[in-house]
Design goal:
6-stranded parallel β-sheet; binds manganese (II) ion; metal-binding; 447 residues; membrane; hydrolase activity, hydrolyzing O-glycosyl compounds; globular; binds nicotinamide-adenine-dinucleotide; nickel; hydrolase; binds 6-O-phosphono-alpha-D-glucopyranose; 17 helices; single chain; alpha/beta
Length: 447
Amino acid sequence: MELKKQSIAIAGGGSTFTPGIIMMLLENLEIFPIRQIKFYDNDPERQKQIADACEIILKERAPEITFVATTDPETAFTDIDFVMAHIRVGKYAMREKDEKIPLKYGVIGQETCGPGGIAYGMRSIGGVLELVDYMEQYSPDAWMLNYSNPAAIVAEATRKLRPNSKIINICDMPVGIEHRMAEILGMKSRKELSIRYYGLNHFGWWTDIRDKDGNDLMPAIQKHVKEHGYLTPAELEGKGNEEVEASWVHTFGKAKEVYPLDPKTLPNTYLKYYLFPQDEVEKANPEYTRANEVMDHREKMVFGECNRIAQLGTAVNSELETDDHASYIVDLARAIAYNTKERMLLIVPNNGAISNFDPTAMVEIPCIVGSNGPEPLVQGEIPRFQKGLMEQQVAVEKLVVEAWEEGSYQKLWQALTVSRIVPNARVAKNILDDFIAVNTEFWPTLN
Ligand code: NAD
Ligand code: G6P
Ligand code: MN
């Protein structure tokens, strides 16, 4: 049977991840055929640089695909099957502030965790809800696959404020770690692994990992993680992928300190921010954070290469690479478009899947995905250690959404105070007041 051709809107067309997604979509056209791609962004100059290069790439490699880049919501969201959303409200300039303001008070600032993630969440909620509303207005049957961060807070906001919308929130970190697990085991692909996992976004644990024959792979991975974290054998020999930056290498190695807290499981790398926040502060340079690193490396590389392609008028010798981690997005879109019943880790309402946990929490758990969306798989009861940590973190995420909705200074102060990463309520208030001063353009007014 011939597969129906899809029409895709990429929201955040000017993202550094857009070219990698386009290359990835091009590589998957046989299993996920596309008739139209539209880029949407609210920064025309930024988007144009990426769009001009992508237009050339598409013309050269798949001329049958119609391509449009626009800042007009009606043009972007009309006649669409999927919206793939990766926006960053406030861009890197604001990410830099999210990271540097907490550091002034000796607190780690990070894109999605702790106070940095809270500030970013207060900006993202409005931006993502706006995309959902455009989609529903112009293509009511479409699905939004959202990976705009902070995914945990965005997911809670869409659950609460747009409960009937067809939006699925997803993260590539588990997929990225599973890729490393496969490498550690000497297996060809992460797709050979069958996993059980539970948690919140950037806050979870694997409880079971098997190969397709059902053999338990946990002991072998745990043995490696205990010694080396998620560093791959190649990295340990100094022959790793040069594109993995030092800060990420540190993160993958740090997992060896996070792992022993519950040696029966395997942890998500982001738990380091919650369990060893002071270590991250010590390592951080308050003058040069991850935002600076990304602007100096990924942003320069991607925009430089796109501008070069546009100038040459050809991408034949392009250095732009497929973001193959991003292929999980195609798996998800295919599951919905063609009812493949793929098993995937998604951020969904708990609804009893973790039986001893808040049914209204947005949790990251395996789901079977078909044309009518995700069906979460029961993970049962979780231990007190994880339950305690997760309850505290869910309270933070829910308080942020309530603060945004009600314009409540009080609730945002409470959110910052509840975060494990913030040492006390006074520091929480100082950070909050500094955030408010720089976020007037993006946050609702707080009373
Ligand atoms: P980026 O700044 O390069 O790109 C974001 C784009 O969004 C910019 O072009 C910006 O102009 C645009 N934008 C901002 N607000 C908008 C709005 N309201 N409407 C439309 N467009 C808007 O950022 P990046 O580093 O490429 O990351 C993009 C996003 O993807 C971030 O949220 C990042 O955290 C997220 N991300 C998530 C995952 C995941 O696994 N969940 C993985 C990678 C990146
Ligand atoms: C991981 C996370 C994402 C995050 C991305 C990029 O893949 O899952 O949520 O956005 O890393 O982080 P970076 O610091 O490189 O922008
Ligand atoms: Mn993520």
